[in-house]
Amino acid sequence: MAAIAFSRRLRRTNFAEGVEAAGAKGYTVYNHMLLPTVFRSVEEDYHHLKSAVQIWDVAVERQVELRGPDAARLMQMLTPRDLRGMLPGQCFYIPTVDETGGMLNDPVAVKLSEDRWWISIADSDLLLWVKGIAYGYRLDVLVDEPDVSPLAIQGPKSDELMSRVFGSTVSDLRFFRFGHFDFQGRDMIIARSGYSKQGGFEIYVEGADICMPLWNALMEAGKDLDVHAGCPNLIERIEGGLLSYGNDMTRENTPHECGLGKFCNTQTAIGCVGRDALLRVAKEGPVKQIRAIAIDGPVGPCDRPWKLMAKGKQVGQVTSAATSPDFGGSVGIGMVRMTHWDDGTELTVETPDGPKGAIVKEKFWI
Amino acid sequence: MAAIAFSRRLRRTNFAEGVEAAGAKGYTVYNHMLLPTVFRSVEEDYHHLKSAVQIWDVAVERQVELRGPDAARLMQMLTPRDLRGMLPGQCFYIPTVDETGGMLNDPVAVKLSEDRWWISIADSDLLLWVKGIAYGYRLDVLVDEPDVSPLAIQGPKSDELMSRVFGSTVSDLRFFRFGHFDFQGRDMIIARSGYSKQGGFEIYVEGADICMPLWNALMEAGKDLDVHAGCPNLIERIEGGLLSYGNDMTRENTPHECGLGKFCNTQTAIGCVGRDALLRVAKEGPVKQIRAIAIDGPVGPCDRPWKLMAKGKQVGQVTSAATSPDFGGSVGIGMVRMTHWDDGTELTVETPDGPKGAIVKEKFWI
Prior knowledge:
2 copies of one chain form a homodimer.
Chain A: E1 3-4, H1 16-21, E2 26-30, E3 33-38, H2 42-51, E4 54-57, E5 63-67, H3 71-78, E6 91-93, E7 96-97, E8 103-105, E9 108-113, E10 116-120, H4 126-136, E11 142-144, E12 148-154, H5 158-166, E13 178-183, E14 186-191, E15 200-206, H6 211-221, E16 228-230, H7 234-239, H8 275-284, E17 288-295, E18 306-310, E19 313-323, E20 330-337, E21 346-351, E22 354-361
Parallel strand pairs in A: 4-16
Antiparallel strand pairs in A: 2-3, 4-12, 5-10, 5-11, 6-9, 7-8, 9-10, 12-15, 13-14, 14-15, 17-20, 17-22, 18-19, 18-21, 19-20, 21-22
Keywords (chains A, B): Methyltransferase, Transferase
EC number (chains A, B): 2.1.1.-
Enzyme class (chains A, B): transferase
């Protein structure tokens, strides 16, 4: 085990006090900020997430705010997903690409109004790309990182806990829609969303001062629901096929390779800077694609790509993996060439503990 | 102590095998990559750095490569430092700013030729800004991250070690100049530079395959010089006044606030996107500035800004601090308002262990 060296550059979130009191044992760094990765154990956190309710400090999902007359135009420049039909109150998952069609991020767009948007980002300084494009095109738009700290409530008892704090109307929210709710006189934007398949919400908390009061109120309200501090769970997110930018995909990959073709309206997303580059792949399809990979037996941490082999030749790589209590053996996410990506294809994965059997799956586990 | 959770997203460098074998005990994350922070102890590493020679895996200093007819024009857009007089073979420390004059990075520019440059970056995805500007302005230039892994040789015995591996002419290099040298038939760009005040070199190693052979050759050649694996040392870099982007300065700060006004030729750096915004501060000077801060007694890790107080009012903050074996008490870097930045001003710094006496210093320790 190696220690993480704390410094101001690895920013503490506005919920850090709560996270530390809850006994976070491990961290990763995400958008230059600390993200807890485990509280009790990854397995214990996993079972609890699937049965109760957790509060996650996901303030690392920094927002890029676009505000001004050209905000909508700039948004469309960033993604091959057609945003014309998107209404205020909606969240859209938007693959974000550069001029070559390479993935720069896979954020969630939050449309506050016609001229005000948030982009809730994965781990890259997307702000710099958006600012560069806005400046280069002389767009009439302000681009900045606001003081917004997302807090996720995840797990089967999320609706119950949220209703206690925000009133029962919060349960009326549909998936990837958001509404405005009151907490101690402050307006909170709450969406039904989150980085798990167990259901839940994300609260976009504006203002550092109200973060810990909200954290404490949720903890207090959920005592009899066995609420715990939690965090994105490696096992559960792999079982659910939730991709991780930087792990499962990088700037090297197109959205289509990442299985995100369904979010690309390449024909109609006029203005997207990567559109020209993606037209061909959108038509012909990618030659490799992300797949669920079942692996024999337990695995250690996947801290570098593991080669996927067939008859001594590399045909892909695994980029996320974890031993699964609920499904036996290990669950993984990998990128596989089209010659070997069919459901049920048997491969070998080269792990640090030696080669193991692997099977390509069409669908993820949950 | 909290553990760091390893994943592919926290990229291993091409020297990781050597770093791990040498027993790195702690890491930070820098440009989405692992950077070791301590081997034996920070104090032991410090004494050794000041007396012998160390090999540092600084592959986290990723390069942004600019190549093409518009490369020089794009370079000048990034910085208020006038680059017109810069020759191939030179390295320039270039504060890099956005359109508001806020610091985006403080990299070293490496001019390979008129139409080919590297930018050796600090911790932010500067690539995305450079690509955005290049795209927005339709510049005729390729911008990418090449397969280059810098390796630093630092300490008073650096010249001796480097001469053994690259021949004695490497000692002729002047500060912030680079030359081409051979290693096993491969061309290596070597500069006299590095993130310490103990003297030394940085080797820009092109190609993943040659990284460990070079690491091993240097280790072998330096055995009788007591060569050790090392890393940027927190204590020594504060004593030397070497700033850390993300710690001591952020996008909130102008170069002038960071004491980098001497690297800004705001009048003549025509084309710099932040020039207009910096003209006023360049003329009138900043209202706060980075200073060396001596602190009474030992300190723990500075993982968030510590307030600098005078008569109950905040007049600045400390952003880096460490107990200093050679200078007694603790050494720090902070940002102080002009009302209190004079040499010898006595302040109080609010540390997690309570308030401590602090003195503003005009100059750093080494």
